[in-house]
Write a structure and sequence with these properties.
13% strand; five-stranded mixed beta sheet; 14 helices; 5 strands; CRAL/TRIO_N_dom_sf
Amino acid sequence: MLLVQPTLEQKTFIRTALDENSHNIQNEIEILKKWLKEQPHLPDTWDEHCLFIFLMGCKFSLETCKKKLEMYFIFRTTLPEFFANRDVRTPELKELIKVMQGAVLPDLTSDGKRISIARAAKYDFETPNIADMVKLIFMVGDLRLKLEETGVFDVYIADFNFPLAKHFYKINPLVLKKMFMCVQEAFPVIIKEVHLINAPPFIEFVMNVIKPFFSLAARTHANVDSFSETLYEFVPKNILPEEYGGNAGKLSDLQDQWIRTLEEYSTWFEKEENIKADLSMTTLKNGLRGDYRELEGSFRNLCVD
């Protein structure tokens, strides 16, 4: 199965952690639907289940949810490099899949965490287009909005089983900033941990570079030089892929499942591409709730210390 849904016990744990029972969920979803209709620059309607996942990912704060929804639809308009032409069968994404290996794992931890893992498919390869990589990651993220039955917590594992420095210096830092802004300001994810395994000493430099626009330093665990079983202190060994001592099957097979699913949803992605903010002069003169103009400036004036 692509995504094993939470058991009753896991749902109870998640709902208790997010204090779901103190909220009238359907009423709050209706408030969001009404709010969308009142925003001239945003879509009038959207998938109700996705609104529910957004609400959970924002810990049932309506104001936070409104802000994230607005930025989500604005980014869909302003960042076509991430959110346009989203078809996993394009030559660019096919080439990326040859060098990148990753998947959202099917099973959850007992406390409702969903694990995502990524690594290089081979040691020696040409530096891929980072924007294409982000596009693929966000495609999976958007599909999860539809496929997850309820909100879950997220844990990300990045395996640096390749010469990181060789590729990092070729990456446009502006693309990294846009990616992190999307994750933090537009996607309803509750990130519990980030694990960096087989990380070279160079990872300290990388973390210092991204620290200004990614507030996860306190929850990031770096294992320098070689894979360590300390990962099992955070992630149950049995739900990991075989390559990491687990029982979830081969990572390549898990990735193939996701690629097939993305292909099956190609028509859905095409339709979703049109559900975005209208930033024409007609709507802009009515004013945006978010600080869109300042956002544009932050993209142009990126400075990396």
